[in-house]
Structure formats: structure tokens, C-alpha cells
Amino acid sequence: MRLKIFLFSLMALTMGSAAHAQDDDSGITNVSATSNISYASGRTPEADPENTLLLDLSTGGRVTIRLRPDAAPNHVERVKTLARQGFYNGVIFHRVIDGFMAQTGDPTGTGQGGSQLPDLNAEFTTLPHVRGTVSMARATDPNSANSQFYIMFMPNLGLDRNYTAFGRVTDGMEYVDAIPRGEPPANPARIIRASIAADNVPPPTAAEIAAMTQPAANDQAAALEAALGDLSGETPQ
Q1: Residue 54 · residue 64 · CB < 8 Å
Q2: Alpha helix stretches (DSSP H) within 106-205
Q3: Nearest 10 degrees: CA dihedral of 161, 125, 88, 83?
Q4: Cα separations (Å) of 231 from 52, 87, 90, 113?
Q5: Is the Cα dihedral 69, 72, 74, 76 positive or negative?
Q6: What do you get for the CA distance between the two ends of the chain, in Å?
Q7: Under a CB-based contact definition with an 8 Å cutoff, are residues 132 and 173 in contact?
Q8: Cis geometry, peptide bond prior to residue 49 (ω within 30 degrees of 0)
Q9: Residue 9 CB neighbours (<10 A)
Q10: CA distance 139 to 101
Q11: Whole-angstrom Cα distance, residue 48 to residue 198?
């Protein structure tokens, strides 16, 4: 069974010393023992439709995320591949902690799932975990990221160089702020549709959103098919 993918030890990470080192039991790699950290440019790259992730959320609008292939090329490619497959469509935000982050990307909604693609090797960089940063969730093994990711509500620099940050929200952060809290939330928000800007996928209509957020007879799969159709010609994994 896949290990549960989540962010570890929230209280420990918010302490000032947490940015430097944590032992293995906390789920954070000891930074002093990590030599393969890339020093990514602090300059935000110019807008590029091919490297812009769009998330249409059930909270009411579209979130624009500037991806950073210069910092984490393999993670960016993975998220783009899954978005184009329709993998993220209909997936809930299953772990949402106020003042911390909102996590999604598990089609089972349990925090234990992922895609059928192999796990990724870490691409730790110096990109900071500030408000709006988008980063990959993982298990204790640094090389266990697969499909789940999280969006930061507030800065938490204790995550820097321990999780692979691969983008940042540039528009629509208010729709992230509106995601219901909980682990899992009683009424979780969903990604109605994930797409890459270069593909010019239109936002979902009101009818599509209603079909997704209020599935008849709790048949989520049927609601997803009715709302989105077969956009890519591929079956979500």
C-alpha cells in the first residue's frame, strides 16, 4: 500500500529552529546531510502559457499558477502530464490546515493515493515556501512525491529545501483562501478542472460546476463524466 502522503509535524516546522534540521522521525530530511540542493533564481520568470497551470475550483473561480521548470523540471513535467490526462479533474482538497496549506492531488481523497506513474526523485531548491507557493507532498522518503501537491496559505520556511516547490499562485488566491478546512473537510472543495494555459481550455460553465459539486446520488464518477466529457481522449489514472 502506498504510504500516506502528507506534510509532517506542523508545530515543529513553525518553530524557528525547524528550518535547519529535523530528524527522520519528523519526516523532514536533515538539510545538513543534503548536498543536491539547487539554487533557483529568485526572479519570477516571464509568463509562459506552456508553463502555466490553471485550476478551476469549486470555490468559485480560476487559480493561475506560474510553474518553475527552471527549478524543478521533472515535477513540473509530471503535473503538466497529469493535468493533460484529466487526472486532477474532480479531485478534492483532502487536507486543509488553516494558516498553513491546502493539499490535493489524491484521486482516492484519503491522502494515500497517487497516479500510476513512478515516484519522483526530489528536486529541492532554494525557492521559499511563502504565501501562494505550490509544492509537492511526499512521504518520509524524499523521493516519494507522485501526484499530490499543496498550496501555501502562509509562509513556512521550515519546508524550504525539504519539499520540492515547483510554482506559485499569480492570480486567484482568493479561491484558494476559500477552500474549506479539515482533514478531511466535511464539505471539501474540488478541482473542477486542471489544464495548461497553452491548451486554451475554457473555464467550466455554471452547469458543469453544479454537476460536479452536487453529484446526483453521490455518483461522483458519473458527475465528472457529465460535467467534463472526454476532453483529452485519455482516461484519468
Answers
A1: yes
A2: 173-177
A3: -170
A4: 18, 11, 13, 23
A5: negative
A6: 17
A7: yes
A8: no
A9: 15
A10: 16
A11: 8
Which strands make up the sheet holding 165-171, listed edge to edge? Answer: 93-97, 101-104, 149-152, 133-136, 165-171, 62-67, 52-57, 191-196
Query: Any idea what DSSP says for residue 118?
Result: P
Task: Note whether 125 and 39 are within 8 A (CB).
Answer: yes
Query: How far does CA 68 lie from the centroid of its chain?
Result: 14
60-82 pLDDT tens trace:
999 999 999 999 999 999 999 99
Query: Tens digits of per-residue pLDDT, 141-194?
Result: 999 999 999 999 999 999 999 999 999 999 999 999 999 999 999 999 999 999
Distance CA 205, CA 199 (A): 17
> Which residue's entry shows cell 548536498?
35
Closest CA to 108 of 227, 215, 225, 5: 5
